[in-house]
Amino acid sequence: MTNMPDDIDGVRLIVDRAFEQYRDHDNKQSTLIPLLQEVQSKIGYLPEQALERVSQLLNLSTSHIYGVATFYHQFRLRPKGRHMITVCRGTACHVKGSLEVNELIMSELGIAPPTDTSKNGLFTLQQVRCVGACSLAPVMKIDEEFYGNLDPAKVRRILSRYNEEES
Fold it and tell me: Residue 30's pLDDT band (boundaries 50, 70, 90)?
């Protein structure tokens, strides 16, 4: 879940505190990524107010800040769900049906691009190149728990269990 402060002043305070360690750096451009990482670690994602404040502090255009934040996959512009679902899209998983697994999850959770988080905020879905569990293909991971040899019925049972735990 997000640690997003309830107000703009709270976001500003988080960004300002993160900026303190970079205040004396001559090259503001080189501090951008570490600053964004620090802010995201505190809030959970990079809200618009945070990007605007970073722009002010580093004297870089907001469009430049957005460009960097959207270029690197490590940065999020929207809150994450309580549980992160990672679907492996490596070769072994692809051959054994990971695309179908991903589509089923999207359908079951009502996730449609460009969003990646369920409307109830419970799940965020991401695809990765490989999770290193090829012998269990197709594989998904929810938080730190791996689930392998997936088929539609198994995926539905797993998602149902997480939904029940949250009820």
Answer: confident
Residue 153 pLDDT > 80, yes or no? yes
The residue among 51, 49, 81, 44 whose CA lies nearest residue 69 is 51
What is the CATH T-level fold of the domain 83-166, as seen in this structure?
Glutaredoxin (3.40.30)
Q: Tens digits of per-residue pLDDT, 75-102?
A: 999 899 999 999 999 999 999 999 999 9
Please tell me the pTM assigned to this model.
0.74
Kindly report the CATH number that applies to the domain delimited by 8-71. Answer: 1.10.10
Domain ranges of the chain: 8-71, 83-166
Q: What is the pLDDT of residue 3?
A: 55
Distance (Å, rounded) from C-alpha 2 to C-alpha 96? 34
